[in-house]
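pasting for ref
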Amino acid sequence: MSARGGGAALVLAALVLGAVLASIGAATPAAPVARLASAVTTPVTGTLTGPTLLPTSGNGTYQINATGGPAFSDGTKVGNLTWHASLNAANTSGISLTPSSGNLTGTSAAIANLSLSGNAQTLTLKVLVSSVYGKENQSTNLSLTISIVVPYVVSAEIVNGAGTTVLAFPVLIALDGTTVGSVTVPSLAPGANYTLSFRYASGGLSVGEHTFSLSLSNEHGLVRFANGETTYSTSFYVSAGPTSYTWWYVAGIVTFFGVLFIYASRVAARRSGQVRK
């Protein structure tokens, strides 16, 4: 073979080898793109928020949020951000958190609902947040201490003594002039009654006289208390408890049970053609 012929053969062999290598490269899956060295990551951080004082047999809603760590690159979520919760207390029987784990987007909070038993105690809600990308993993711990106390209870018997159905209406509850909650009374047929109950968790009221007040928004003008007014109140006295008691036990000792009577009545005849709100 001549030198010229040999050179052509070498060129042809090189072209064939290049084509084979190119086909092999095309058939091989691409490797995961590595994080750029210049990418900015921040430590994983989070928040756990919700009520820290709840009544026995009560409920509480908690928000979990987090961001940062390997799951984020230059502020963009590229990995997984998860959370797992646990409950620590002297007696966790009858206590549940739903859900107890989940994923986080980094932009909106996860919601967990806590349901309590009848035990007065201190409960610690712990949440482990993990930020993961590939083989990188970073976590942080969040916690919240919750005092579960025997509540003050305000109850009232609502009687519809009117000759007409009364639509649902809210009753506002205030303690010493400050609104602490509300209860919605359902629609009541003539002669029907309803027992209103409101449970107020307190870290302990000061020694002396205190007043629970109920008030009506009077949306449809058909409801009055037994005194003919839109407000009704009752007072009770809190005495000093032994200093050796824990504060939630003292709150339980001075628990107030108030029985109030509310009557629904048609306070004024509707004018012909008046629109009912």
